[in-house]
Write a structure and sequence with these properties.
Length: 152
């Protein structure tokens, strides 16, 4: 039995090496599991998460929750159904605190540029380039995490 187990392990290792060699020339793009894994959520029934203790992170987290529950739109700050763009969600949750709003937008733009490159001049430009709601919602959550990590 030990001999069969050893022989099988050697064959599996050889197959793994052969697979690596045979597929090394194939150019692939990394897959973000968040694009593939979706859960049957009903966001309006989900309670808001426990807020971050820092103001910018908490604002970005509230904006993230607002997009989850109220909807996302592009090419407008708010659409006819009340859905908001990234900038509109941050502005709505800032409650007229311009300094807090600008700090949150700055962190959000930094998160966008770190993930998607320097090709975006502004948050609205990024928002309008998105083709689905998962990307802007995800980047808003990542920006909240970034702000929290920086104690903002």
């Amino acid at each position: 039995m030990t001999f069969v187990n050893t022989a099988m392990s050697v064959r599996l290792e050889e197959a793994a090496v052969a697979y690596e060699v045979n597929t090394a020339h194939i150019d692939t793009e990394p897959v973000d599991l968040a694009d593939l894994l979706t859960l049957p959520l009903t966001p309006t029934l989900q309670p808001p998460p426990t807020p971050y203790p820092t103001p910018v992170a908490a604002l970005l987290q509230r904006a993230h929750h607002r997009l989850l529950t109220g909807g996302w739109c592009k090419n407008a700050m708010v659409d006819e159904d009340g859905a908001l763009c990234l900038f509109g969600a941050v502005r709505a949750e800032a409650h007229r605190d311009l300094g807090l709003e600008m700090s949150a937008i700055s962190v959000l733009l930094e998160a966008i540029r770190s993930r998607f490159g320097d090709g975006f001049e502004s948050v609205p430009a990024f928002n309008d380039s998105c083709s689905d709601r998962q990307t802007p919602i995800r980047i808003l959550g990542q920006a909240a995490d970034l702000a929290h990590a920086r104690d903002l």
